[in-house]
Design brief:
2 domains, five-stranded mixed sheet, about 30% helix, Nucleotidyltransferase, domain 5, about 220 residues, 6 helices, alpha/beta
Length: about 220
Amino acid sequence: MSEAALLLGIDNSSDEGSLALVRVSEDGSPTLLVQKSLTGRNRSAEFVPALQSMLGRTNSELKEVSAIVVVYGPGGFTGLRVGISAAKALSEAANIPLIAVSKLALLNSSNGTECIAILDAGRGEFYVRQENGDESLSSLSALAMNQQIRICEPSLTPILEGCNLQLVPPPTAFDAVRAALPRFFARSFDDAATLDANYVRRPYADTANAARIVS
């Protein structure tokens, strides 16, 4: 790339989300300027003030942002909707390119080497990403106990007792930006108008409604 760029990262896929402003140098190296946690219950109201604060702290303006990187799932349904809606709104309003990345993909490659990545999906199920990139919903009985499994949720440790586990810190918005850099350099962006959350499974309300229709 010929000049430095400013990227905005958004991750609202878990109980503790984050925003990050990242400066990418002329040689392609990312530097975290500021990262802010999103922990409030009303994330939609918290998002804009947090972003304004970050832009102010770095003497930046939204029009300077070269791309927005958003974690689009899997994760909590409400959090994903808030994060993706905000990313799409900013992208369309300010004409900023958008890149969506999978949280499982971030976890899968978080230590520089790839292995099976698992997130808690609730109801005794797990979001799973295989080394080949396939993502699915799985039960405990379907997991390969002899393969290395990477997790970022300590609560899964006793549940997956007996598995070859590797516990790592949860991915952040900065991690999302770093992972998206190859696509940014290649100008491989997502369509903000059609982007949807990567739920892996449908929200419970949708499933329940479908069951009532069938019955």
